[in-house]
Structures are given as structure tokens and as C-alpha cells.
């Protein structure tokens, strides 16, 4: 059964931020399944090109003209948004990968890679979207949490 769902629109202003998403579980369940997806997963728009140009000037010490010319060689840019989870303020882990379609399971015996097993019980829970790199004018994201009795 679905116990939480949220649609988000993210943009370049969200790069290198953490978005906290609190949710409450009111009943005990045997397992939680967190579905997280976002699109598009790559970008070659003006925002991405500008970020590549800035990085080339900062780290490669390219001048303005050569950075503009070289930027196209590095497009498209992969977006990177990862998800972390906590329960009653205690960190439970993070799923750091480049997949734009993720499924994380948590129960008292096992959990997806990067997370600690924990009871799916009444508590104050919090997801965090760790927006490492958006590099796009707009990204649509969806979080859906299912609970298994």
C-alpha cells in the first residue's frame, strides 16, 4: 500500500543542495519500499554547457574562448541525485549511484545496499535528496513509499 508520494520540480538552483522531506509512519509494517525516479537523467542544455565552461575555467584554467569551444566535447552531463534516509533523527544510510530510477527496500533483517536494516515502525522519518548535480533548467522527480503489512 502506498503511504507517501511526492512530485518535485528541480532546477539548476538545486545543485549542491540537500532537500529534506519529512514523513511520518503511523503503523508498523514488515517492509518499506522507496521508489525514487527523475528525468531527464542527462543534460546538454544551456545550463549544462555553462556549468562545463565554468569548470573548465576553474580546474583546467582554460580562457573564456577555449572554455566555450571545449564545453561541447563534455556534453551531455549526467545528473546526480542521491537519496538518504533517517528515522527519529538517526541516519540510516544513503544510496549513492547514478541511476535515475531507484528502488530501496528496508526491513528489520535486510536493506538495500548503503542502508542499515531497521524496523518499519511508527516514527518520524526523513528522506533527503542530495542534489549533487542537476545541470538542467528543469528535472521532474517522484518519490513513492510503499509499505508491506
Automatic annotation (TrEMBL):
This is Uncharacterized protein. It comes from Ruoffia tabacinasalis.
Amino acid at each position: 500500500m502506498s503511504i507517501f508520494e511526492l512530485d518535485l520540480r528541480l532546477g539548476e538552483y538545486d545543485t549542491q543542495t540537500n532537500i529534506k522531506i519529512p514523513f511520518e509512519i503511523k503503523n508498523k509494517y514488515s517492509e518499506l519500499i522507496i521508489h525514487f525516479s527523475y528525468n531527464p537523467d542527462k543534460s546538454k542544455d544551456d545550463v549544462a554547457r555553462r556549468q562545463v565552461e565554468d569548470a573548465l575555467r576553474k580546474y583546467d584554467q582554460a580562457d573564456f574562448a577555449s572554455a566555450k569551444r571545449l564545453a561541447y566535447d563534455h556534453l551531455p552531463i549526467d545528473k546526480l541525485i542521491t537519496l538518504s534516509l533517517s528515522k527519529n533523527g538517526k541516519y540510516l544510510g544513503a544510496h549513492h549511484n547514478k541511476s535515475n530510477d531507484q528502488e530501496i527496500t528496508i526491513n528489520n533483517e535486510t536493506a538495500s545496499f548503503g542502508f542499515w536494516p531497521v524496523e518499519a515502525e511508527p516514527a518520524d522519518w526523513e528522506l533527503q535528496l542530495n542534489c549533487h548535480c542537476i545541470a538542467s533548467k528543469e528535472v521532474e522527480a517522484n518519490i513513492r513509499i510503499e509499505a508491506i503489512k
